[in-house]
Amino acid sequence: MTTDSRRALASHGLPAIVAGFIVGAASWTYLPPAQAAEPVRPPPCAEMAQWAAKFNRDDEWQPSPIGNRHRFARLFAQEETTKHFGKPMVSWTESDVRAVRESVLACRRETKDRDLSGRYNQIQSALNNRVANFARESGPARERATAAMTTLATVPPSPALLRLKLALADAGSPEGHRKFQQASGSLPPQAMQAAAPARELAAAMAHLTAEDIADIVTMPAGKAAAAMRKTVLDGMVADIGKIPADPNGLLAIQQARQSIARDYADVFAPAEREQIDKTIAARHAAIGDEITTAVIAEIGKSSTGLNDAFADIEARSAPQLAGLLSPAQSTRIREAADARRGTVAESLHKSFIADLAKLPEDEASLERIDEARDAIGNWPPPAADQAARFRKAAEDRRATILAAVNRREAGRVAGRVYHSSNGLQKLEFVDRSRVLISSGEQTMPASYVEEKDGRISITGPDMAVTLAREGRVLRGWTTPLVRVK
């Protein structure tokens, strides 16, 4: 192996131990295609005997740095074999193997030495099997690898293709070959054209020598990766600049940042990473500013109705984008929402107080206030301070109206009848101590007592309940009961 060949092995990912093993074991010289095509020239039997005497089938060597599919006696890989047969064994064709096998057979028939005859038999067995298999598979593998590299060169540049070619440039070792297979198995859609030639390369490389892998695969892949690096980087910068200024664009920016950190950390140099990161940050800021301005404008158009004013402000604040915007942009939106909430609350509170004051002192007004209290209870958490003000105003007015209604409804309940809105539940206060309780078509008697605070306590078989009087309504039953008599 030449000095240049050793350098090629070292520069294409072979660990020092593996490279040293191959250099020490294989001293054959790589031949150019024209010279490799020349047929072998088997030596005379006298020289063949000297060569065969050194054959040891237990001392094995493998031509591939990435696997042990092909293994031979070390003698086949040594310079002595090249000297005796005119070309290194790794360049033998199937016809070369047949020629060597016939020469070995002829020399075996000629010799009278039993030990040498046995070695010839072992050599013939190796030629018939392992050497023949390698010769049959290595040539087509070189052709497939060359064709796959040609196809790979037609795939449009992309970050994924750059990652794949960088992995291919380091695929001349078992670990590098494994990483290349991983990269080829996880290609995104934009680089899927590279999947088929990548699979072809991964399979073909198992039949190639270290020299073939370097010359056909890893060295060209390294040069191709270096040549496309600027194109890929410029394309990435341009694509980032085209990300739309909308919520999907914010999500795309986040995904791009995560993908680069996760999938391309070892693809780009620090300066390239810095350029990409700055481009992403600038586009993120631009998209975020545009969206923030639009969101603030929408907040200013929010509803001013009691039922939905504050929920509408919250919805227009786009809280789902908070994690995608910068802290400063999120603060701008929050401050705009707070200001709008305060403005709407002041105006709404004035009209709310005025409307409460206009309510007549009757049961219908109590119902309207209860509906308003329910609406206030549904306001979102950011409106908690406003809700407290409105709720107090409603409760104060309700207490005033209820006192007036209760004064009109004061007096004993004897003789009064109350029922539910659907008429199925009914209480008939017969006299000062007895009440008839009806549920549907069933009626049962019970006793009652009017408490000093105006409440009514009813007791009967397996029951005890205390009802509160609110004007013409009794509360505390399974449903409110309204006086009808």
What's the short version?
The protein has 485 residues and is an alpha+beta fold. It is built from 17 helices and ten strands.
Describe it for me?
- The chain is of the alpha+beta class.
- Helices cover about 60% and strands about 10% of the residues.
- It contains 17 helices and 10 strands.
- An 8-stranded antiparallel β-barrel has the order 3-4-5-6-7-8-9-10. The protein has a two-stranded antiparallel ribbon with strand order 1-2.
- A hairpin with a 2-residue loop joins strand 5 (about 435-440) and strand 6 (about 440-450).
- The radius of gyration is 46 Å and the shape is elongated.
Q: Strands, helices and their partners?
A:
Layout: H1 3-11, H2 16-25, H3 33-36, H4 45-52, E1 60-61, E2 72-73, H5 79-85, H6 94-110, H7 114-152, H8 159-169, H9 174-184, H10 195-204, H11 210-241, H12 247-263, H13 270-299, H14 309-316, H15 327-358, H16 363-377, H17 384-408, E3 417-419, E4 425-429, E5 434-439, E6 442-450, E7 456-460, E8 463-470, E9 473-475, E10 481-483
Antiparallel strand pairs: 1-2, 3-4, 3-10, 4-5, 5-6, 6-7, 7-8, 8-9, 9-10
Helix pairs in contact: 6-7, 7-10, 7-11, 8-9, 8-11, 9-10, 11-13, 12-13, 13-14, 13-15, 14-15, 15-17, 16-17
